[in-house]
Amino acid sequence: MTDLYENQRAMRRMRKQAMDRGVIAILDVGSSKIACLVLRFDGPDRFRESDGVGSLAGQSSFRVIGAATTRSRGVSFGEIDTMQETERAIRTAVQAAQKMAGVRVDHVIAAFAGARPRSYGLDGQVDLADSVVTEADVARVMASCVVPDFGAGREALHAHPVNFAIDHRSGLIDPRGQIGNSLAADMHLLTVETQAIQNLLYCIKRCDLELAGVASSAYVSGLSALVEDEQELGAACIDLGGGATTLSVFIKKHMIYADSVRIGGHHVTRDISQGLQVHPSKAESIKTRHGGVVATGMDDRDMIPLGGDTGDWEHDQRSVSRSEVIGIMRPRVEEILEEVRARLDAAGFDHLPAQQIVLTGGGSQILGLDELASRILGQQVRLGRPLRVQGLPQAATGPAFSAAVGLCLYSAHPQDEWWDFDIPADTYPARSLKRAVKWFRDNW
Questions:
Q1: Alpha helices in 238-356 (DSSP H)
Q2: pTM of the model
């Protein structure tokens, strides 16, 4: 555990150095594309203060001065599986973004979707020596949270305090300076497979870059696609990517649950490719231009030419109706949504005061998806685009860029985490934990 905290603290220090220099790169390592945005920071305190505990000073405003995307290579299920190919793709994206920005970048903050995330809810309580809560008391109460035995080969990626209580007065965002006899805290801990982070770190080092932070795509997509009311009252963000679908649940402006389903848009494309016996690139074109998941009366008459250059005239002149394409796509999309529903049910999503669901990511653009999702998930569903950030090119404002834009917001306004406090490292007992969403049932 101590090594983990030191790694995270080292990355936090690097992030601060990069921000002092004024530029940092954002890298969204996905299964379908690798996106790089170069940010220039304009100085502290132009944005509103963080809603976290606030130990990290210097919240900064920024603008995007460079942007590039390239087709992802060597990434499956949101994880790197072919180092050389991914390294080449990252170099291509970073060099193109640097060229547009006209600056050299040494530090990157990266997001990825895979690594089998798992959520835990932690809680702890301490008596206050002095009646006024200090930063040292906040560190002590975090240290008192029981860390789960999450097994070998896994490590904590995010560890956010999500709620404080003083003498049973719950729902406090920042307890410092308040008076009471005891301080309690609830935390959300997100763990991932260590190997996925190590591969990402190694790949970025091979590109002559320093990793100044790493985040879950599920978390950062929620930051950019959910509006403030949704983050406050309770909402789930579902990001349909190429190789994986991530989901995150927010309430009181904190993420309290995250997970991923190892199915995405690539699987839909593969089904079309196999079902219609066409090349994957043709299947992708059919999916984006003619695809859908809700049939209408016109679909039998809407014919789609398949084309081809095999030399077999009959094979190359084939066409299919749009209803056939929908018939191939719908079962796979239903499978993704059923998996998402199972994860939300396990998290206790139905206990939230509001239950808005926001679909984002490249796969969310499939026609009729919001209608099908509201039937399967049984909640209010809307399609979400990332928040607008200054300088972002028009081409990068679509739902496929929710994670990249969220990572920009995360880098400029990091929510305080466990490693931002001077926590004594001598109390890490391992025993089983309550489920991730339990704390807010008692508090709201």
A1: 265-276, 280-290, 313-316, 322-347
A2: 0.86
d(CA 205, CA 200): 9
In the three-class reduction of DSSP (H, G, I as helix; E, B as strand; rest coil), residue 135 is classed as: helix
Beta strands 169-172 and 118-127 are unpaired
Q: Which amino acid is at 240?
A: L
Least reliable range by pLDDT among 203-207, 361-365, 412-416, 436-440: 436-440
Task: Please give the Cα distance from 49 to 173 (Å, whole number).
Answer: 12
Phi, psi of 159 (to 5 degrees): -145, 90
- Exposure pattern of 12-27 as b/e (b: 16+ CB <10 Å)? bebbeebbeeebbbbb
Give 24's strand partners.
39
Q: Is 251 exposed, middle or buried (0-12, 13-18, 19+ CB in 10 A)?
A: buried
Span 1-51, pLDDT tens digits: 445 566 777 777 777 777 778 899 999 998 899 999 999 987 544 444 444
Contact 157, 134 (CB under 8 A): no
| Residue 293 DSSP one-character state | S
Q: Tell me the per-residue pLDDT of 244-297, one tens digit each, with 9 for 90 and over.
A: 999 999 998 899 999 999 999 999 999 999 998 888 988 999 999 988 898 887
Q: 3-state DSSP call for residue 402? A: helix
- Report the DSSP pairing between strands 182-193 and 245-251: unpaired
Give the C-alpha separation, 143 to 184, whole Å.
11
Q: Angle at CA 223, nearest 5°, toward 221 and 228?
A: 135
Predicted pLDDT at 433: 36
Q: Which residue has the tokens 């190694």?
A: 202
Q: Are 394 and 21 in contact (CB under 8 A)?
A: no
CA distance 286 to 306: 9
- Angle at which helix 83-101 crosses helix 194-206, to 10 degrees, equals 50
- Are 333 and 369 contacting, i.e. CB atoms less than 8 angstroms apart? yes
Element at 305 (helix H, strand E): strand 303-305
Q: Please name each of the domains of the chain with its CATH number.
A: 120-192+421-436 (3.30.1490), 228-386 (3.30.420.40)
Residues 6+ apart with CB under 8 A from 434: 121, 123
Instruction: Answer whether 173's CB lies under 8 Å from 164's CB.
Output: yes
C-alpha pair distances (Å), 387 with each of 147, 223, 224, 401, 404: 34, 9, 5, 10, 11
